[in-house]
Amino acid sequence: MAFTGVDFVQVSAALVVVTFVTPLLGAYMFKIFSGHRNILISALRPLEVAVYKVSGVRETDEMNWREYAKTLLIFNIIGLVFLMLLQMLQGHLPLNPEKLPGLSWHLAFNTAVSFVTNTNWQAYSGENTLSYLTQMLGLGVQNFVSAATGLGVLLAIARGIANRQNSNLGNFWVDLTRGTVHLLLPLSVIFTVVLMGQGVVQNFLPYDHVKTVEGLEQIIPQGPAASQIAIKQLGSNGGGFFGVNSAHPFENPTPLTNFLELVAILAIASGGTYLFGLMVGSRRQGWVLFGVMMALMVTVLAISLWSEFNFGSMEGKETRFGMTNTVLWSVFTTVASNGSVNGMLSSMSPLSGGIAMLNMMLGEVVFGGVGAGMYGILLYVILTVFLAGLMVGRTPEYFGKKIEAREITWVVIGVLAPCATILLGSAISVVAPAGLAGLGHQGPHGLSEILYAYSSAAGNNGSAFGSLAVNTSFYNVMLGVAMLIGRFAIIIPVLVVAGSLSAKKISPPSSGTFKTDSLLFGGLLAGVILIVGALTFFPALSLGPVLEHLLMVTKA
Description:
By secondary structure, the chain is mainly α.
């Protein structure tokens, strides 16, 4: 199968549009969180103020890193417990026309953790498992607030870098409210209307029961899908309303919806690079980070396309939109910790499936989730600055702030926690009978199934390889714990580092200052990301997708 000019145009169009919207969304987000006015923000300001009045939040209050972290954790714990109870009790609650029963405790736990952590891993099929009320009040709400939480952490560390001996990092409640009211809500409303216009379903009707031409009964699911599809893409959530996610024609009916949903995966996350540049007073710094992310993404996309067009087939691909769009989606969704899919990853060529896995293993810092990708890559930035300082024999600095033992200790914890979770979780699962019982394949592909599941969970991605049976007490608990570590074992170190940097003096630049807004620094940063991410997992990848590729080539 040949890669044609049409394929090139499709790939180029997606990359160009993402680049174009980056400064637009970044500048808009900066206005939101810095208190600047424009027509849209002014129109939504009364709703924001009403939220403060109802919740008793004082907009002018500031928090240090401990208060910010404590508030964030309490909010997420409450959300987790509420969502878990909602799922277990849904059989007794309204908006359940199909009379779906409550979930088991371990599936409810896994799903609650999944959506609270912005992972949206789904060990179930949506239309067969969750009521309309659970989809909207449970999953839909978490799609908004988990994305807004990620934005809040990005804002906190950006303020910490920009502050001058000031312990205040903002107010979590204000950041959460503004991110939801002024950014995610209006964009989701607009996107929902567009999707409905293209045929994505949005109703509260019971499922249709129809007869096929063979005389068999087929059940056609309905529901408020468009609203959840909009926020799942914009908020880098990814959880599908229907079991087959964005391969379902009710979620993704036309080439236009496919393109718009694809771009939406990266839009806000890429805008975060420009937002950061504005917050720290250096647009150039933001563009350097964007450039590193884009360069890494284009590289893995090229490898994935090459592998699929040379060694792949149309099995498991989105036949309505072609092989290129399936590969493009698989890369966008795994670099962005989105997790939505429009094809079967398990059916892709070994190297293409391996690339999707590697994207998550890099720490979800190539755009990553909303806010999460940026605060994740900033850990790598600080690590790179530290290593560069060691090489030239001077105290490392970032924006005039000295990087010392306290910061680098927490940076290493934040960088290595997901890596350890992936490898330890996979190791336990390949020796435990309960872990092996869910395998859909043996050999290297079977290892890839397990390795992918933990990479997706610890990376808060949520996509699935597609052939591992995970709706068991073993995997629901193990992967749930991996998601919690992958989310909060990074957020806490980021906030500690933010608080530490915020209290430091800013040293004026000198002739010996290592510039972090240069092409040289961008190259070093990309190298550190690849060394820590790729080399850490090289032995595991060698036994999985790499070995499977070599066996396939040998047999051919």
